[in-house]
Each structure stands twice: as C-alpha cells, then as structure tokens.
Amino acid sequence: MGEAVGLAGRPVAVDFDGVLAEMMKHALVADEAGEAADHALAPANLNRLGAAVHDREPAILGVEIGDRIRLAIVAVTGVLGDEVGERETIFEHHAHRRYSPAAARFRRTVATGCGNGRGGAAMTTSEITTFAIDGFDGSLMHPFDPGYDEARRVFNGMIDRYPAVIARCTSADDVAAVVRMAQRERLELTVRAGGHGVSGSAVADDAVCCDLRGMKGITIDPMARTARVEAGVLWGELDAATQEHGLAVTGGRVSSTGVAGLVLGSGSGWIERSFGFTCDNLISAEVVTADGRQVVASERENPGLFWGLRGGGGNFGIVTAFHFNLAPLGPIVLGGMLVYPASIAGDVVRFYRDFMATAPDALGTGLTFFTAPPADYVPVPVRGHPVVGIICCYTGSPADGEEAVRPLREFGPPPAIDMIQPMPYVAVQQLLDAGNPSGLQNYWSADFLAELPDEAVDTLVALATKPVSALSQIVLVAGGGAVARVPSSATALGERTAPWNIRYLSLWADLAATERNIAYTKSISASMKPWTTGRVYLNYIGDEGHGRVAAAFGPEKYARLAALKKVWDPTNVFRHNQNIPPAE
C-alpha cells in the first residue's frame, strides 16, 4: 500500500500496483503551465494491463509539478475511484520511479476522444510522441521504456537516480547535438562512459544523460604503437585489442572500468611505474565543448585544454575519443598474488614498505587487505578470514621477474597462497574483478601518504584486519618510477611524488549495514590522516565536498584549473563530477 495526499490534505490509502504504473505510461501529463488533464482507460485495457503487470513492484508515479506530482485520474472507478475518492490526487515523490517535467519535454502523450469523470465515455488509446534532438542519430531512452531501469544503473548500487532521458550516442556529432539541446532547454547534463565512478555522477535525477557506451571504436596502429579509443570503451576491451599486438597502455585495475573516466582522472594502473599514468601517454583528445563545438586538444592544439584534461576530470568538455602512445608488453608477463594470513600482516606491510623503496620500476605492485573467498584454491584455514595480499606485475621478461619477486616470497613464513607465475597480461588486469562486481553498495575514500612509519603500519593493520564487511578491501599502491619522473607542472594531476597511494573500499550487500560500513571507512581514513600529503587521487573517492577537490590539486593548480574552466565552460555545464567551478 502507498500513501497519497488528496487535494483536501488528508491521507488516502491506495494500492499502487503495476496497473497504475502502466496507466501512467499512457496518461495525459500536466502541461508545463501545471494544468492537469483527464484520462480514462477502457475496462478491457485495464484488465489487460493488470494481467501484464500482476507481479510488478508497487510504485507511485506521476508528473512532478513544483515539489509534488499531480495526476488526474478520471473514469477509472472500478480500479481506483472508491479508494481515492478524489478527482485529482497529488502523489509525493516515490523513490522507485520518477516522471518529471524534464522527462515530459522528451515524451508527452496526446489522447483523443472525451470522457470527463465517472461514467464518462472512455477515451481512445493514447498516442505517444517522442521528441527528437536535431542532428542526433542515436537513440533516446525515456522512463517506462523497456531497459530504462537497467540503463540508468551504475556500478555503485547506492546510486538510485532517474534521468529525464538517456541519450545513447553513436558519434561525436550525437554528443554535440545532446550538449546543444541541453543548453538550449536549460537542462542539467551528465556524462556516462563506464559508469564505474563511486560518486555515481554519470546519472542525476531529471537530467539528460549523455550516454557514450555505444561508442566502442578502437583503432590500433601497431607500427606507430598508437591507438585511437572512443569514449565508451572499457579497459578490458582495450587491453584485449592492444594485446593482440603485444602492446599496452597503463589501465585500470578492474577491467570493467571505463577508459574515459580513468584517463581524465589521470589513470593509475599496475604498470604505471614503468610507463606512467594513462594521461602521461595521451597524445591528443577529441572534445565536445560546453557550447557544442568539436575541437582537438593536444600539445599543439588548445594546449591549455590538453593540460586540464590530464587529471582535471570531466570539467572542461566531453572527450569522445582518446589517442594514446602504446608500449611493448606481453602477451605473457610475470604476475599474480601472494597471500598471507592476517596474523602476520604487520610484518608483511613493513617488509613490503622497505622492499619497494629499492624495487625496480618494472615491478608494479599493490598490497591489499581483503577476506579470503571460499574457493578451492584457498587453503581451508584462511577461507572466510581476513588476509593480506601482494599483487605483482613485472613488465620485463618473466625470468627477470622471478628474481625481482624472490625477496617477497622468501622474507618470512611461506605465503598461504602463491599465485605468481607467467600469465597473460589481460589476466593480471582481471585479478580484482571477482571482488568488485557491479551493483553492490559502495563507499570509498583515499589519500596519498607522505610516509609509512611503523606507527602508521600498526594503525592500518589494526583496523584493516577487522573489516565490517567481508567484501571490503584496502589497497596500498607504491608510487615512484615513471610517474614521479614526469614534471609536476606537466599535467593537472596534483600529486606525483608521494610514495604511497592508499584506497579504502567498503562494499556490502545488506542495506541495513550501510551506516556501519560508511562509519568504518571514515574511521580508518581518519586514523591514517596524520601521514597523508593532504592530496587525493580523485577517481578513488565519492562526494567529499569541494574542499577535498581543491586540496587535491593544491592552490596554484586549482586556480589555473578554475581559470581554464571559465574559458571552456563558463556556466559550469559539466558540473556532475569532481567539480571545479569557473573562476569569478
């Protein structure tokens, strides 16, 4: 049962089943002036709709006018008349679905016939009109369209938002058309590529979602060792394409991560110590600007924009294609993971800290706290218990890699699990996939660490080995190498020389455990603050406020980014991100 509020202000109990949902699909919506319109459905249609939606979840639906939703229900006595007792009913917003004025700009219904009230003649079936976007050859997905619910969902299951329309683009021209339309109609605009960001900024209530997932083009030039990659490509797809030629570029540590978001945030990955961040390998970018123009950003064309795109996020435009330099790698590398019981986690972290201080750049690693899964390859004593692992990827020959990782294998008790071996590079890129499925509740935080003294190790281990959720993880990545050799001023990224980048990921399925998991993440992050640089890799956090964004870049770079924003996006069209408002 749902609770509605009648025009007289008294609560009215209504059973909002799927019949009402289907009625709203065909109902006349209020026009933009806020006037309600009548609509009736023949009994035969009601019976058909009732059978079609018998098992659907209840929902309260309607068209928002101001802060509420007005729905005219006329001549449906047999279904809702006796319960509602009102000619018009105002429904409060319900989280399951939303059909807003913004949505109504893209889809309206036109009914013919007459019938005003009880006993009136039924109207004929409504005709639905979908509004087109000039110059747009993709497809528009509206609320109530098949597949809309799936299309609006993102990686983080905590995000439950309802765009007015999802514009599924197939080209840069489509993207430009969507941007121009959103500007003209004064609608908020979000951009979705991989949808992997924990903030969920790819979607927003009542906004136009510019969906790039259909833009999957990958062109590899193996002789020049370059690639052109469209914005809808995922890292698993790009890795597969580049590895056909024994080439690679630093990519995400979970293969379902989108290329676009990772690059614009700078792009951290297992091979960054050898080849730099992803943005360090960017040759140029094809960009749609806030006014719908299409430009190229590179060291020679629009160099200021090019600087800002490399670490400044999606603040300056929509990149529709990236051009990368590639490096020889694979297809077989030495990689995998060593796993130790939590009882010796302190010793493991200390040895790892000291070992990485002199490790070769070819050895990319990360230390992770997680809960051992109940899998056959996991020894029974550690199944379901907190453990600490060291993930490795060696970019030189596997034989040289064996010697490089030997100290990790021999420093103390033999690891409970030793999975380091020659394997395809694409397999290394998928090592964390199973532990990061889409749709779970996610709350993340992160920091760059300036140091990792014994006190910091003790603090980390004490909390990291007592997770609230068996799905949560903490990943500590060693810096240095090629990343640190790029001058700080070369890109917008705010931190290059920190020795450690730590990421706290709480994942859980039970909604009742949300507060406990968030509190745990905040607690461990706060406990480690004494050893941080004050900056953060923004791809690793959700919405932690504007101060956190500004601090990530430092005052000088942030001022430059704000000035750049004023040039390329003076009205802050691209604000659903780790936002940098334009300078005043």
Question: How does this structure look, described?
Answer:
- The protein is α+β, with helices and mostly antiparallel strands.
- The protein folds into four domains: 2-130, no CATH class; 139-211, Uridine Diphospho-n-acetylenolpyruvylglucosamine Reductase, domain 2 (2-Layer Sandwich); 225-328 and 557-567, Uridine Diphospho-n-acetylenolpyruvylglucosamine Reductase, domain 3 (2-Layer Sandwich), CATH 3.30.465.10; 332-547, 3-Layer(aba) Sandwich (Vanillyl-alcohol Oxidase, Chain A, domain 3).
- It is 27% helix and 23% strand.
- The chain is built from 18 helices and 26 strands.
- Strands 19, 20, 21, 22, 23, 24, 25 and 26 form an eight-stranded antiparallel β-sheet that branches. A five-stranded antiparallel β-sheet has the order 2-1-5-4-3, with helices on one face.
- Strand 1 (2-6) and strand 2 (11-14) form a beta hairpin.
- Helix 1 (18-26) packs across helix 2 (43-52) and helix 11 (345-356) crosses helix 14 (454-464).
- The longest helix is centred in the N-terminal third of the chain and has 14 residues, at 172-185.
